[in-house]
Amino acid sequence: PFLDNILLLKRNMHLRDRQQAWQNSSIGKEMMTFRENLPAFKEKEAFLLAVRRHQVLVVSGETGCGKTTQLPQYILESEIEAGQGGSCSIICTQPRRISAISVAERVAVERGEQIGESVGYKVRFEGQRGTSTRLLFCTTGILLRKLMFDPDLNGVTHVIVDEIHERGMNEDFLLVVLKDLLVRRTDLRVVLMSATLNAKLFSSYFNGAPLLHIPGFTYPVNIHYLEDVLELIGYTFSEIDQADDYGEDKAWKMQRMLQRSKRNPVVSLAMDALANADLRKYSGAVQFALSQWNPECLGFKLIEALLCYICKNEREGAVLVFMTGWEDITALNNCLKSNPLLGNPNKVRLLACHGAMATADQKLIFEPVPQHIRKIVLATNLAETSITINDVIFVIDCGKAKETSYDALNNTPCLTPTWISKASARQRRGRAGRVQPGECYHLYPKAVFEAFSEYQEPELLRMPLHSLCLQIKSLKLGKIGDFLGKAIQPPDPLSVRNSVQLLETIGALDDKEELTNLGMHLTSLPVDPRIGKMLIMGAIFSCLDPVLSIAAGLTVRDPFVLPVDKKDAAEKVKYKFGKEDCSDHIALVRAYDAWKQAMDAGNAVDFCWKNFLSFSTMQVMHSLRRQFEVLLRQAGFVDPVHEYSNLFSKDLDLLKGIICAGMFPGVSSVWSMESNTKYKTVEDGPVQLHQNSVLSKIEKIPYPWLVFYEKMKSGNVLLRDATGISDSMLLLFGGKLYKSETVGRLHMQEGWLEFTLHTPFAQSVMILRRELDSMISQKMENPKLDV
Ligand code: ADP
Ligand code: MG
Q: How confident is the model over 286-307, as a mean pLDDT?
């Protein structure tokens, strides 16, 4: 111990000397001046004092004031100055991978270091940290994972949770865990950081923890709603020019033009609003428009026209465009690239900023551009609070956001774009006023803004809880219901019970709500538990390749695009891929295989175009497949040496069994009444097939059962996707089987799934099923076992 102490002392001194040397060097001084000009600097002493005095501190401040890059750094610097640098360990969580990485890199630069020295990062599959790393930026998921192995966070001195105002599921969850942990670890310091809103909520959750607010300064931002935007660019629409000849009233002209274009109800609504002063009359129409409006329909044309307008008429400064996700960013990007002005690299630098971006590409967003070039950044709501782009003066806000649904690494189920909250809209607006007075263009009418909710609903209250429930179990946090009851805003007990029940049905939890071996494995797969189970079964039964495609396809959402004007042709293509097997899922497999072949032959873009497939979605599927395979290999389910995992990949019966294993309890029975085929599921009674499903075009489905992943209610209950399967596959791969008193009758754990069978056959089904179940459970116990 004596020697250890000496070494520690030496290390501490070295850290201090280095820090001082940097701060006294000429670039270091310049950097310090930059940092000292950030609003956070004025609160530095107050912040450090509060951290020393209180277990929990809540800090709020405008985006860009220096919370993320400065506050953790202040702690690190002060520990190093005090000669304790070697023994502190600060963890700062970020909700997204990209911000964890970019912030860590920025802080390393500010400290004149390489990433991985005193500052590092860790996100899933990627990390830069060394033995000397004292400040670690990581995703919230990584910290939760760490808690699994080290529930007391031994050695960690400070935990900083960033962006808590977003109310992400992981963050809300982490706060409950930390609240418990603080009782045991009285020396641990927790700092919660949030954008300006709602900090009081968190303070009262932590028994009145002190609040520190960093006053910020922003320049005024001019607000333009859709009405104004259309007026600004109105004359670029040729229809209006024509109408002008007739000397018509302008508002009416625009209205007529938009009625003609008929693509976007909100735009028409805005036009009505222009013509009629009283917007209140339109509240019903506003509601309708809210449900219909879709940035993609709005036509990238409007954004294109607005961007051209800004480039031609406005002062210098970067433009930040808020889009909903990776897909529409890519599509808009392609569309803008073909514009003679916006696509000209000598005049415009078009950049994208979203969570799935390669690390190297991120840096371009922050780089200044030469004077005569206009920087345009297409971003997701990532740029709302977690990333600050310095030179932005113009903001274009499409008004919608969605979670990065393609990114299974963040474990976010697919979501459709939804309206942002007023708070988000104000945040987006604020991005324009950081360096000088700015302009914000909201692509929706003022009336729509007024209808936004004040804050976004916390994720915990609107997302499926299956994965979270598994996580609670793997962290040994007790009864799921009790634990979630302790959240800031607890979810509805009914939805908790539904999730627990589903997990019991698929065999991830036992009847005492304890994790089974399957449940344990599922916690390491960042996908919906049902998809996770299907992946594991695919690996166990050496039928992995097609299952990878299905899992990836269901996770990213449909790669088949169905353009309104070419719907028939598009549906034919999907039908071609799936009709033979009576399966939307196998259609995914065949589409991917064909795409892969086209890819290898170098004509994938053309292939996608002809087959109505989204090229970008196919690419994401491709990379997800790889990630799934890596995870299965890490868990031991895939043998890295032998190619056993695809021994039976061509066996379609088996594949259907595995699909059934994954989709269960999503089962519906098929019964034909003359020409009219009907389906029935457990809870909802009669259901129908969604018109996008291949099966909806098959006259007579030659299977007694359908298994499906998703059903949705919109008037009728619709199955979005389905695969037809036989009795035997359902019996072998469905839920638990019971033999009832009545001889020759089998039923599944869902009581209504009854099979009347001849006794000898029932007998053999039971025997075979027992064999399969025992083999599966052996594999779950020890995935590497050869059975
Ligand atoms: P907050 O977390 O309060 O929103 P940050 O700490 O992220 O603020 O950013 C503080 C300031 O640091 C920003 O205003 C910006 O000027 C600067 N900054 C942050 N990241 C970078 C970067 N990667 N490159 C250059 N400057 C950056
Ligand atoms: Mg921040």
A: 57
Query: Cβ distance 251 to 259 under 8 Å?
Result: no
A 10 A CB-CB count for 145 gives 19
Give the strand order in the sheet containing 745-748: 737-739, 745-748, 754-756
Residue 658 CA to ligand 1 centre (angstroms): 48
Those residues whose C-beta lies under 8 Å from the C-beta of residue 738, and which sit 6 or more positions away, are 746, 747, 748, 749
Give the pLDDT confidence of 211-255 residue by residue, as tens digits.
999 988 788 999 998 878 877 876 433 343 333 333 334 444 444
Atom 18 of ligand 1: nearest residue by CA position: 388
Query: Which residue's CA is minimally distant from atom 5 of ligand 1?
Result: 66
Ligand 1 pocket: which of 31, 192, 388 to mutate (most atoms within 8 A of CB): 388
Q: In what order do the strands lie in the sheet with 716-719?
A: 711-714, 716-719, 685-689, 676-681, 667-673, 705-707, 723-725
Percent of residues, the chain, with pLDDT higher than 70 = 85
In this prediction, does ipTM exceed 0.90? yes
3-state secondary structure of 185: coil
Contact predicate 734/667, CB 8 Å: yes
Better-predicted residue by pLDDT, 284 or 599: 599
Nearest atom within ligand 1 for CA of residue 69? 6
In b/e form, how buried is each residue of 284-317, taking b as 16+ CB within 10 angstroms?
ebbeebbeebbbbebebebbbbbbbbbbeeeeeb
Phi, psi (deg, nearest 5) at residue 360: -65, -35
Q: Is 38 close to ligand 1, i.e. is its CB under 6 Å away?
A: yes
Residues 302, 400, 258, CA angle at the centre, nearest 5°?
Answer: 35
Other beta carbons within 10 angstroms of residue 643's beta carbon come to 11
* CA 40 to ligand 1 center in whole angstroms: 11
Contact predicate 151/184, CB 8 Å: no
- Nearest-atom number in ligand 1 for the CA of 366 is 24
Choose among 58, 87, 91, 59: nearest CA to 158: 91
Number of the ligand closest to the Cα of 94: 2
Integer Cα distance of 770 and 751 in angstroms: 19
Ligand 1 atom at minimum distance from 61 CA = 3
pTM comes to 0.78
With a 6 A CB cut-off, is 37 part of the ligand 1 pocket?
no
Tokens of 507: 């065999």
Cβ–ligand 1 distance for 60 under 6 Å, the answer no
Taking phi over 0 as left and psi of -120 to 50 as alpha, with beta for the rest, 342 belongs to alpha
Which helix (H) or strand (E) is 401 found in, with range? strand 400-401
Distance from the alpha carbon of residue 572 to the mean position of ligand 2, in angstroms? 48
Q: Is the CB of 390 under 6 A from ligand 1?
A: yes
Q: Which two tokens stand for residue 634?
A: 């890490």
Residue 665, preceding peptide bond in cis (omega within 30° of 0):
yes
Report the 10 Å Cβ neighbour count for 368.
Answer: 10
Kindly give the number of the ligand 1 atom that is closest to the alpha carbon of 386: 4
Q: Distance (Å, rounded) from C-alpha 772 to C-alpha 466?
A: 26
Rounded to whole angstroms, how far apart are CA atoms 552 and 554? 6
For residue 421, report the distance from its CA to the centre of ligand 1, in Å.
24
Are 690 and 562 in contact by the 8 Å Cβ rule? The answer is no
